[in-house]
Amino acid sequence: MKFHSPATATAAALLSLSLLHISLATPISGEFAVDGKVIELNDSNFDSAISTFDFVLVDFYAPWCGHCKRLSPELDAAAPVLAQLKKPIVIAKIDADKFRRVGDKYEIDGFPSLKVFMHGVPTDYYGPRKADVLVRFLKKFVAPDVAVLESDSDISNFVKEAGTVFPMYLGFGMNESTISKFAIKYKKRAWFAVAKGFSDNTMEFYDFDKVPALMSLHPTYDERNIFYGPFDDQFLEDFIKQNVFPLCLPINPETLKLLRDEERKIVLTLVDNLHEEKSKQLVKVLKAAASANRNYLFAYAGLQQFPDFVETFGISKSLELPKMVVWDGKEEYFTVIDSDRIGEDDQGSQVTHFLEGYKEGRTVLKTISGPSFMQFLNSMVGFKLIIVIVFATAVIMLFLFAGYEEERPRRQPLRPESNEVERPADKED
Q1: What are the angstrom distances between the C-alpha of 275 and each of 173, 219, 267, 280, 319?
Q2: Residue 413: is its pLDDT beyond 80?
Q3: DSSP type of residue 311
Q4: How many Cα atoms sit within 13 Å of 106 on the Cβ side?
Q5: Does residue 372 surpass a pLDDT of 80?
Q6: Which of 52, 137, 277, 420 is most buried (most C-beta within 10 Å)?
Q7: Active-site residue among 39, 41, 49, 68?
Q8: What is the per-residue pLDDT across 322-369, written as a single tens digit (0 to 9) for each?
Q9: In what order do the strands lie in the sheet with 90-95?
Q10: Would you call 153 helix, strand, or coil by DSSP?
Q11: Is the bond leading into 212 cis (omega within 30 degrees of zero)?
Q12: What's the pLDDT band for 398 if we cut at 50, 70, 90?
């Protein structure tokens, strides 16, 4: 029989406890410790990390970028929550300014850039970046395409868990195969579920009186619409597309990002201050018009709340507001001759007159202008193209002045140091 000293026994016990704690808290997946912390990657282990985990959110950052520094604690807070999901999502980050090979491979042209890798396949992430909302947003990537609900309590739990970031589509008395194709197509933009079991109380609560029925629900905007068919692909997708957004969408830095994939023309109303009672009344008028014109997306923005955006439409003072335009979501918009300004009397008729004028072609085509457009809209050139332009201009200037100045030592390539460079859609308040 072997005997150990008390000190030796204590050390052995502590070592065993430490190893047990590590095994429980930080399970090892290959070379990566999965402990709910953000994983720092480099060019040598990036591909390995992407292939190791089924779902990875990668933050392509630069150390000098202020927005990257503000995003970092949000990712730190979200990482342990996402790691505890039934299908965990790992958060990783890489200095894409230092490891340019990786940044170039994934076409990173601004910081921070976020991509979700699902089974190794990347998709751009344009959702919210505050930790709690980011978690809800990312849950969609690992959720079933169509949830099957068997009871009233399942329905209530589904609505509660889905939160308010995305719209929901609930099919009552429908088979999941009816909407599965669209659930996959619109997975990043909405929740989908079918209820196989539900009571009369649920029908009364959601205000539908027959099945099958498909309900769209926007908790944030307190909007609900019911579709009773026909349930062929064309009509079904039309209903889904038209209800991804609320009847009248408020434009702000977050909702602006959601317009990337919108195909409809945007009937945009610009007001001075969204908090004024007269602006709220106008929004009610716009919602009524939107309900009857679902082929357009109706939206509104306030000069006081979002000046950089509103001013891109040629607005220089509040006296010019309210004003309506039809925007393509990119660089161009239309004004309607003698109908773009909205007075305070009989606004419903004025909105109708504006829409009629647009449909009849009584319009003037204009281009969005100003530095704010360079900050917020997708049609802007990327960071790399800016560098190319700057470099080309510098070369031309060197040739022009070569005969007037002595040759100077060749300068290092243009590299950002203290100034931040970012894509417009990634700008935050």
Answers
A1: 42, 21, 20, 7, 17
A2: no
A3: G
A4: 29
A5: no
A6: 137
A7: 68
A8: 999 999 998 899 999 988 899 988 999 999 999 999 999 999 999 987
A9: 39-41, 90-95, 55-61, 113-118, 121-124
A10: helix
A11: yes
A12: low
Active-site pick, 39, 49, 65, 116: 65
Q: Which residue has the tokens 């197509």?
A: 185
Cite the DSSP H helix spans in 106-148.
131-142
Taking CA atoms, 337 is separated from 301, 340, 362, 367, in Å, by 21, 7, 6, 16
195: which strand partners?
149, 172
DSSP E strand stretches across 178-236:
191-195, 213-218, 223-227
Flag whether pLDDT at 304 surpasses 90.
yes
Q: For residue 146, give the nearest of 173, 180, 170 by alpha carbon.
A: 180
pLDDT the model gives residue 374: 41
DSSP 411: P
Of the listed ranges 74-78, 127-131, 233-237, 246-250, the one predicted with least confidence: 127-131
Beta strand extents in 100-167 (DSSP E only): 113-118, 121-124, 147-149
| Residue pointed to by tokens 């609505």 | 159
Tokens 């979200």 found at: 78
**For the chain, percent of residues with pLDDT exceeding 70:** 79
CA 133-225-342 angle, to 5 degrees, is 85
Strand-by-strand arrangement of the 266-271 sheet: 248-250, 297-302, 266-271, 323-327, 332-336, 363-367
Contact residues for 263 (Cβ-Cβ < 8 A; gap 6+): 241
Could you tell me which residues come within 8 angstroms of residue 277 by beta carbon, excluding any fewer than 6 positions away? none
